[in-house]
Amino acid sequence: MPLLPTRWIWFNGEMVPWEKATVHVMTYGLHMGASIFEGIRCYSTPRGPAIFRLQEHLRRLSDSARIYRMDLPFDENEVRAACLAVIRDNELQAAYLRPLAWLGVGELGTNPIGHPVEMMVGAFEWATYLGIEGLEKGVDVCVSSWRRVAPDTIPSMAKAGGTYLSSQLISREAKTNGYAEGIGLDVNGYLSEGSAENLFLVRNGVLYTPPVTSAILPGITRDAVLTIARHLGYEVREQVLPREVLYVADEAFFTGTAAELTPIRSVDRQPVGDGKRGPVTKAIQERFFAIARGQAEDIWGWLTFVDPRPASVEVPREILAAQPA
Question: What is the pTM of this model?
């Protein structure tokens, strides 16, 4: 879906009109892919807009900066305040946030040392990444011919702009061939992740997901799903997984800030299980959305309310207990 402009973007410490938040064409980050970023969801709740796992996202942004030796000009508290401000100032109830840091104008060689670091935070309305229908009915995916990065080439633990050139190849190949998304294998041929999502499989009631060593980004939503699954009593295994597990799994789903929790109904045109959202996927998905939307108790403290004032009206217990699909 097209990007819908909002009024304001936080740009290097100031609120700037959307159309004026620009950089020079000689910006180093544009030429060399030298940027780090986050994708964060803000959900509409009975208490107003709430950002999901904001602190964890900001920590990962800081971690990405450390991996790439990028000295951010604003600390986590300042970026946190910027995230809250772009939601509030743009009068958004539900939104996708994009904090971004990049190397500015400097030499155009491969040496990044000495370049200025710039930052922005934007917020805009963005629907479900793989389609609202996909949340219930699932999506059709393929295994990509493109591999994910090797561990001694580009660090997959950092959410860096240049890394997503790989993701673009996976996504383009999948969509060109009529699939909603592609799954990449790691350098050893084991399951890694989608172009912008972590991967989960269910077999005999056990939840499986590739480990960090399989060239995945350690997803914030992935971690939330692991937490919820264990809380619901499911056995969880983070382990290396061969490609063929995709074809014998009972259930499969993607997780990610953009994709949220989207079931996979087929892989390489072969149905996964019954070819629809399975019971384990459904149970975890319902609990995830109930917490994110403020309809169930936030026992892990994942929500940061844009307006920290207490709700003027108490939410009925029956609403808090509800877990919509």
Answer: 0.92
